[in-house]
Design goal:
The protein has 236 residues and is α/β, with parallel strands linked by helices. Helices cover 22% and strands 27% of the residues. The mean pLDDT is 94.
Length: 236
């Protein structure tokens, strides 16, 4: 039952990482991203990756590091506004992009983890989001069918985890990480603090250990901020 590995590189090698895989990467903006796992992917040099993530980091951090090295061939995202290299590759047809409304993206991932193959949503009806998809009417309203998303490997980040994989996230870092942990065929979790089974109150567990394949304690997390906003200091 002990799922602990030394670091992200060991976890990815045990998971069988290779070119052409589909990955999910948790977090929101730069908050709660699996930065050590991303760095290991850069080091391992795997290519032609399809990456499912809310965004693609920034030019010099997060998934932007993979983008810079042309390791990603397709992004499935809902927000890409902080990455100039993303824009450049997309406009020059170097990167395939599937833009998904944010709520729909979250539900497609959640559905994948729950074993639900597809669902209907009103979001995107009558727009380019609808193109090529089945549309049905329920109770007088039109809905578009969206397919669930799964990944070969999910990489997630949590505040606390135990050696059998139970995870607790902190605040905004809870965005996308829990559903991605469930939707990966193999899930790798990096945590700020690794504890023994029983040290996490059962009612506090966000991701049960059954979804986690490998876990490791990361160190020296950067926890960068995309847009730092401050008020002028008050003067007397």
């Amino acid at each position: 039952m002990n799922k602990v590995v030394q670091d992200a590189k060991e976890a990815l090698l045990k998971a069988g990482i290779r070119d052409g895989m589909t990955l999910m990467s948790g977090g929101f903006g730069l908050c709660g991203i699996p930065e050590h796992s991303i760095a290991a992917l850069v080091e391992l040099g795997v290519r032609n990756l399809t990456v499912i993530s809310n965004n693609c980091g920034v030019d010099d951090f997060g998934l932007g590091l993979l983008l810079q090295r042309k390791q990603i061939c397709k992004m499935v995202s809902s927000y890409v506004g902080e990455n100039a290299e993303f824009e450049r590759q997309f406009l020059s047809n170097e990167l395939e992009v599937e833009m998904v409304p944010q709520g729909t993206l979250a539900e497609r991932i959640r559905a994948g983890g729950a074993g639900i193959p597809a669902f209907f949503t009103p979001t995107g009806v009558g727009t380019v989001v609808q193109e090529g998809k089945e549309v049905r009417e329920f109770d007088g309203r039109r809905y578009v069918m969206e397919r669930a998303l799964r990944a070969d490997i999910s990489i997630v980040k949590a505040a606390v985890g135990d050696t059998i994989g139970n995870l607790v996230y902190r605040k905004t870092a809870r965005n996308f990480n829990p559903m991605m942990a469930a939707a990966g065929r193999i899930t790798i979790a990096e945590v700020e603090r690794l504890v023994q089974p029983g040290e996490i109150e059962p009612d506090h567990v966000h991701t049960p250990g059954v979804y986690v394949t490998y876990i490791f304690q990361g160190r020296n997390f950067q926890k960068r901020i995309e847009q730092r906003t401050t008020r002028p200091r008050a003067t007397s």
